[in-house]
Amino acid sequence: VPYQYLTKGGDVLDILLSAISEKDENGNVKLSLAVLEDITERKLAEEALKESEEKYRSLIDDVLDTSSVGIFILDSEFKVAWINKATEKYFGIKRENVIGKDKKQLINSEIKGIFEDPKYFTKKVFNTYKDNNYIENFECHITTGKDREERWLSHWSQPITDGLYKNGRIEQYTDISELKKAKEKAVENSEKYRLLHENAGLGIGYYTTDGTVISFNSIASKDMNGVPEDFAGKSIFDLFPKEQADFYFDRIQKAIKSDEIEVYEDCVELPKQKKWFLSTYTKIDDSNNEVLGI
User: According to the model, what pLDDT value does residue 117 have?
Assistant: First the structure.
């Protein structure tokens, strides 16, 4: 029987009382023995373990299960030990239906079919199970289906090297759909810029802040007696006499510091002839107001 005992010094001890008795042939007790065992350290250890388990449960329930990153935890046999709610959402599966299942069988039966390229996904993941000694990272595209939305995911996984799931693997899936859309939009905008740059009907030159040519369109290149590929990467000091190059470089530096469009009328000595130009210098900023070029 466990109970607590208050010592003369005021300390509280956890005691386990065990008692046995010996009876005679008539059933009367003739001998009794009581054993008192100090179990204070055991009780402290049990309380510490309980506290540790509660902290672990809080980590799982309050942190990992509410994370927007999908998580698979696999044991040393690559069976599913745990998944979080984000994984349920992304893959259209239920935790109670996959815990304890072999991940390779799960991929073949339920998971690979949700991807745009099932063979690619299966090969990349299965290779980590064959050689569980490296970090893997790749992008994969989930298609729309029952209980799931179309999305792009970034797979990141690594071996578990110690603890309860030593020699297992943790797999994380981050939703990068918005990032992919932003990249596609940037490519689309870049193509629109290229077409505008090329078909503007006037000569356009785009320079870095130190006067290196990023691009000339066809008209500007023709005026310079060449094609666009002839000028990309060259400095204005390679293309013009020093006095003229210094003149243009000063204009570039002025445009960098100005919030206004700088406009000039110039008579320019070109390879074939002199021409009068109405030139404008405008700085191009990024979203952080850093100057990209002129």
Answer: 95
Rg from Cα positions in the chain:
37
- Residue 40: both structure tokens together: 């204070």
What was the pLDDT predicted at 106?
A: 95
Two tokens at 132?
Answer: 């569980």
Q: pLDDT band for position 57 (50/70/90)?
A: low
Q: What is the mean pLDDT of residues 271-277?
A: 73
Question: 49 with 43: CB under 8 angstroms?
Answer: no
Q: Report how far apart, in Å, the C-alpha atoms of 289 and of each of 195, 214, 283 are.
A: 25, 19, 10
Q: Which residues of 222-245 are buried (b: 16+ CB within 10 A; e: fewer)?
A: ebbeeebeebeeeebbebbeeeeb
Predicted confidence band of residue 265 (pLDDT cuts 50, 70, 90): confident
Report the C-alpha gap between 15 and 1 in whole angstroms: 8
State both tokens at 84. Answer: 């979080």
Q: Which residues contact 16 (CB under 8 A, 6 or more apart)?
A: 1, 2, 36, 37, 39
* Whether the Cβ atoms of residue 180 and residue 149 lie closer than 8 Å to each other: no
Pairwise CA distance, residues 72 & 290, whole Å: 41
Cα separation, 104 vs 3, in Å, equals: 52
Residue pair 45/53 in contact (Cβ under 8 Å)? The answer is no
Instruction: Give the count of alpha carbons within 13 A of 227, CB side only.
Output: 1
Between CA 184 and CA 203 the distance in angstroms is 28
Torsion of CA 239, 244, 249, 254, to 10 degrees: -150
Query: E strands within the chain?
Result: 2-6, 12-23, 29-38, 70-74, 80-83, 136-142, 151-159, 169-175, 205-207, 213-216, 262-269, 274-281, 284-285, 291-293
